[in-house]
Design brief:
The protein is 82% helix and 0% strand. By secondary structure, the chain is an all-alpha fold. The protein is globular.
Length: 92
């Protein structure tokens, strides 16, 4: 089986599991699958996205999060068009 097919099936499995689990189950699954460093990286990227969507500048987010300008830029452009994140961040 080609690598791209395996990757596609793996991603589909991951997303289906996330969709069908309750909050506690999702947390348990993610803790079982991700290392503490991976969980920290994902969490920090999410926080950087939230700060950017709240109106902070790239420089402010870099200072607060201790991230490079490239990382902050990448996070912004990957998440700016995500309606789910915009909706969730608006509630806070």
């Amino acid at each position: 089986m080609p690598q791209s097919e395996i990757d596609g099936k793996s991603k589909k499995l991951f997303l289906e599991l996330l969709k069908n689990l309750g909050a506690d189950e999702r947390e348990e699954m993610l803790s079982a699958l991700l290392s503490s460093a991976e969980m920290k990286d994902i969490s920090r990227r999410l926080m950087a996205s939230k700060l950017l969507h709240s109106g902070l500048t790239y420089e402010e987010v870099q200072d607060i999060m201790g991230m490079s300008s490239n990382t902050v830029n990448k996070i912004y452009f990957k998440t700016k068009g995500c309606p789910i994140l915009r909706k969730k961040f608006r509630k806070d």
